[in-house]
Write a structure and sequence with these properties.
The chain contains 6 helices and 5 strands, in the order αααβααβββαβ. By secondary structure, it is of the alpha/beta class. The radius of gyration is 26 Å and the shape is globular. The N and C termini lie far apart (62 Å).
């Protein structure tokens, strides 16, 4: 709010001030109702837990290396992530069908993807578990 009073506000004092107060009040009430419901948060958290994401870097690597996953392979990868999560793994190497994936289990995100040609004589660091499927 400004320290200055406009002439138009003096002519119709309820015009701008009340509208702003009413809008702010409505916004605050609306936010409190959303926060107290909790169902949206539960649904969102459940959805985020289920879905495996591919980072931009991994998507670029997969495209450059012509790595296309079938639905069956995608399901296997998601299953491997679930197994790693059950064991308490945070960052995992997942080997599947001559491909390798580094996955943040905590964030459910494929960080990078390696094809068969680039797997040879490779060293993987910063992982605390591996799943071979």
């Amino acid at each position: 709010m400004s320290d200055f009073i406009r002439i138009s506000d003096l002519m119709n004092p309820l015009n701008t001030i009340v509208e702003k107060v009413d809008k702010n009040k409505y916004t605050v009430e609306k936010q409190e109702k959303v926060k107290s419901d909790g169902k949206f948060k539960e649904i969102l958290e459940e959805k985020l837990k289920q879905d495996l994401k591919i980072s931009g870097h991994a998507a670029m690597r997969m495209k450059l290396r012509n790595m296309n996953l079938s639905q069956e392979q995608w399901d296997k990868l998601k299953n491997a992530v679930s197994k790693a999560e059950e064991k308490g793994v945070k960052e995992s190497l997942i080997l599947m069908d001559n491909m390798a994936f580094i996955v943040s289990i905590k964030n459910k995100t494929v960080i990078t993807a390696i094809d068969e040609e680039n797997l040879k004589e490779n060293v993987f660091t910063n992982i605390d578990g591996a799943v071979i499927i």
